Amino acid sequence: MLLSAALLLLLDRSLGTSFYLSEIHIGGEALENMGGSPILFQHLFWFLGHPEVYIVLLPALGITSEIIATNARKPIFGYRAMIGSIPRSASSASSCGVTTMFVTGMNPFLGSVFVVTTLSIAIPSAVKVFNYITTLWKGNIVMTPAMLFSIGLVATFIAGGLTGIILADSALDIPVHDTYFVVAHFHIVMGMSAIFGMFAGIYHWFPRMYGKMMNTRMGYVHFWVTFICAFGVFFPMHFIGLAGAPRRYYDYTAFLMFDNAIDLNVVVTLFAITGALARSSSSTTSSTACSAALLPCRTLGAATRWSGPAWLSMHGNWPGKDPEVYRWPYDYSKPRKAEDFVPSRTCRTRTGEGGEPRLASSLPSPTERV
Length: 370
Description:
Helix content: 55-70%
Number of strands: 8
Structural class: mainly alpha
Radius of gyration: 26 Å
Order of helices and strands: HEEHHHHHHHEHHEHEEEEH
Oligomer: single chain
CATH topology of the largest domain: Cytochrome C Oxidase, Chain A
Number of helices: 12
CATH class of the largest domain: Mainly Alpha
CATH architecture of the largest domain: Up-down Bundle
């Protein structure tokens, strides 16, 4: 869609067509080919731009699924439903681009159709959220910085989704369209959720990739300051938008009706500066070298533990032949097992005593690993 929009714009600029311009004048004379509409460019752009928001979030949601399962010591609840919700989100997202165009004078019936298609994307999103919450329920949770950022993603995903219901309804969207309410909604979902997923992945896999442990205390400080400041920035923006303050205006001095929003803008600015300073300080977080036995992904029994003997500066995860896999990678907290994680390289054999299954692992013993 974006490529089509760009090609039509190129034709308008270079060959004198009128896809987007209603009247074209060259040398003071109007061309005969008139009747274009700038709204067409917006439609083509948002058919890409709005679905892209959901697509960009999918990697962060995948990272969150991995980290929550690992640190809650439980398989993801409703694993198949979780996997099925991903293509469902992608397919629903492809039909919700007109949500941003409700106030352009489009046919109200067409708007009502896209209200339904846009609200339908809440179904796979709700599946993900409920699966995450149920996975955390009664789990043996390990509160690592990666886990905190993953839970923070779930919180921001819920908060942004609730305000998205308002913007998806054509009647409710009219008074808050193109105001700071839209800025707040968009950045809670697109900004906070996606970035929280990125930070979660960094804290979770940094030791596996580089063989060093990040400073956990600094990680806790990084999360809480970022979480509080992020909501301190975007939560007040909802009220600024409800007051009618339009976005993309750098100065409101000509609009006296927005003077009451100045104090909230000051609060937003202070939280933004504090959050930026916290992120800058977290980039200098110290790290210390660690042995393979102490890597968090080994200690926690992570499914994606990349079970090589140690951190290796090589392509691939194992120095020799790839290991054989006998089971799915999320065997957490299985009944009647001494440990709360069964590695995927563990196979089942039978003993001669009653035919009871016995776990026979190809991994070295814990003593040998240390």
